[in-house]
């Protein structure tokens, strides 16, 4: 029988998960959302799926094997804990939780229950990231000593005044939103070295003058000017790993960078002593700079056209069926949040800080 899936959170990305799961042969059997109408609208797209606004009702359903949690960040920790304790395997949207300490609590429950937890690091499933990973795994870059992970939006604040810009609900701005993807991606490609120290700075200029915010498009819009924006709009950091390698991170929802309109592509560069590679997320190729027979060579890998959310759903289904933990583990989710915690702490302290082990 196909995997019987429950979706918790019937918003933008809950809908994407339901479609991806259906596309790879999983069965969406129930949808839960605090707003019943949203749950009903999404459930209606999947014959036989039921809708509820009571999360425990879905978690108590023994027919459900696994759940996708796609709700605002503040609810990731409590809902993941409840779902794991209810005996469900979990695909948990990013960020894993608001802080590394919260992630650690979830990881303890994974260890107690033996359930599967996959963090929604969907960018790893992009064709570019997969190709880059296989080049790196073949050793073509030699010793990796530096990486760049940039995702710059000139104007891309999501849902200004909604939950994304409310620190109590989101945990922060672009650093915890898209920064989590970029830190994860670079760390994964570098082999997940342990972070040692961070020097970071976050800026909040655009949220201070919400009514003047000039934009062309808005994810999760339109702006709610009666709402709150108390999160950063860009973050800049140098992360030093224990083995000496570094990561240059830059992410923004809003910054006055020419030619970065709308939702900019992510840029990743991984540099080693034998070769280096760069790619744009969503791009159709990976660039490899290397040395062959005493000459500098450039190679461009063309990429297949894949759908990252479907690839992610397939990988999760495989872990559930074969009872193995995924590539994007809760332990890695926690390492990424410990870097994010340190960037916020460094920005507040105005100096380099140690990355705390939780
Ligand atoms: N992987 C990605 O690329 C990606 C992209 C967008 C969003 N996300 C993540 O997905 C999550 C949801 O984002 P979104 O854009 O879909 O938000 P959204 O606002 O569109 O949807 C959230 C839904 O959750 C419901 N909800 C709120 N609190 C709830 C609770 N306690 N229990 C059940 N339902 C609740 C809301 O009613 C809403 O329908 C966030 O954590 C976000 O970071 C990931």
Walk me through what this model shows:
By secondary structure, this protein is α/β, with parallel strands linked by helices. The chain folds into 2 domains: 135 residues, NAD(P)-binding Rossmann-like Domain (Rossmann fold, 3-Layer(aba) Sandwich), CATH 3.40.50; 200 residues, Dihydrodipicolinate Reductase, domain 2. The protein is 32% helix and 25% strand. The protein is built from 11 helices and 15 strands. A 9-stranded mixed sheet has the order 14-13-12-11-7-10-9-8-15. Strands 3-2-1-4-5-6 form a 6-stranded parallel sheet, sandwiched between helices. Strand 5, helix 5 and strand 6 form a beta-alpha-beta unit. Helix 1 crosses helix 10 and helix 5 runs antiparallel to helix 11. The protein starts with a strand and ends with a strand. Bound molecules: nicotinamide-adenine-dinucleotide. The site of nicotinamide-adenine-dinucleotide has 24 residues, from helix 1.
